[in-house]
Amino acid sequence: MEGTFALYPPKLIFWVQLLVLFFLQTFTQMLYAAFIYKFIVKQRRSSSAYLLGFGLVIPSALSAPYPILEYFLIQNKTLKLSMGTMPLIVAFRCIEAMYDTSPHSVEESLWNYVTYYTSLSHFEWDPKTKTRRRCTALDFGAILWRLLCHFHLAGLMLSLAMHFNYQLLPTKVNLHEYNLTWELFSPAHLVNAYMLAILAFFMLAVGFEMASFGDNLKGFLTKQPFYNPLFTSRSPSEFWGRKWNMTIHRLLKHGAYMPARQYLSMHLSYFVTFLASGLLHDYSWTVMYYQYGQPLAYHPAFFKTTAFFLWNYILMAIEHETQHMWGFTKRLPTIVVSTLVVLTALPFSHWYTGDWVASNYFAEFAMGLWFIRKVA
C-alpha cells in the first residue's frame, strides 16, 4: 500500500460521554427495578401486574430515549445506540417479572433485584448465598486480556475496512437495501459480508465487554458476552445459542423464549424469540437514527434486521429437521465447519451490517478506537 498513513488514537471524550450516559441509564433502571419489584414481582399473575407491565412500564421505557437524545443534542450514532440499553433491560426484565422467568436468586431481595437491573450483562450468582459472585484476580486477568485483544483487533479490522471503503471486492449489492438478487450469492458479496461480520463482531465484543467491565472493576463476576462465534461454531443453533452475543441471548431467553414456552411449542417459541430479536434490533435502529424532527441524513429501511433474524430462524429449523444428515461434519476441522455455518447467513447479513456502513456508524465508533488511515 503506497502513500502516507496516520495513526489516530482513541478519543477520551467518547468514553467519558458513554460513561455519563451509562450512569444516567443505570439510575433510571434502578428506579424501574424498585417499582417492578414492588408492584409486579410481588403481585405476579394479577391483572394489575399485567396492566402495569404492558400498559405503563414497557411503553414508558421504550419512549424514554427520544426526549433525552433531543435534550442533550446527541449526534454520534454509537452514543445514540447506547441509549437503547435502558429500554431493552426494563422491557424484557419486566416481562420476566410478569411471567416468573427471571434467573435464580435475583428475586431473593429488593437489593438483588435492583442490582440485577444495573447491568445489561448477567451476573454470576452464588446459589448458596443468593448473592453475586466475586471476581477473582484470575477471572479479572482473563476478562481484561480478552477486552484488550478485542479492542486492538477491532482497531485493526476497522483500519482494513476503511482503507477498502468497506468493500474488498466490487459488487452491485447496495448494502442499505434488501437487494434480493442473485448477486447476494456471488463470491465478491460473500467476501465483503464476511469482512463486515468480523468487524461487527469485534466492535460488538468491545462494546458489550466494556459495558460489563465496570461491574468487574467493582469485584463482581459477569457472564462472558461472546465465545468466538465466527470461528468455533459447528451449527447455526450453536452459533446463536451458545456463541454469539450471549448477553442479548440471555435477555431474550428469559424475556421472550421462556414466557412463550409457557403457552407455545418449542418451535413456535423459537420463532417468537427470533422475531423478538429482530424487533429489538429494529427498535434500536429507531433510537440510533432519531433526528429530533429534522430531515434524516440517512433513511434506513426498517425491519431488515427482523427479516435477517427470521432467516436465521429458518436455518435453525432446517438444521433441526435435517440434523441426521450432517454427521460427516464431525470429521471436519472446526474452522471449516464454522466458516460453512457463517456462510449460510452471509448472503443476507447486510440487512444487519449494511446500515452501519451506509450511515457511517463504523466511522463514528472509530472515535473510541485506534485506527490507521491513509492521509495522502
UniProtKB/TrEMBL annotation:
Protein name in the entry: Wax synthase domain-containing protein
A molecular-function term among this protein's GO annotations: O-acyltransferase activity
Pathway this chain belongs to: Secondary metabolite biosynthesis
Keywords: Membrane, Transferase, Transmembrane, Transmembrane helix
InterPro entries xrefs: Wax_synthase, Wax_synthase_dom
UniProt xrefs under PANTHER family: LONG-CHAIN-ALCOHOL O-FATTY-ACYLTRANSFERASE 3-RELATED, OS04G0481900 PROTEIN
Family label: Belongs to the wax synthase family.
GO biological process, one term: lipid metabolic process
Main localisation: membrane
Lineage: Eukaryota, Sar, Stramenopiles, Ochrophyta, Bacillariophyta
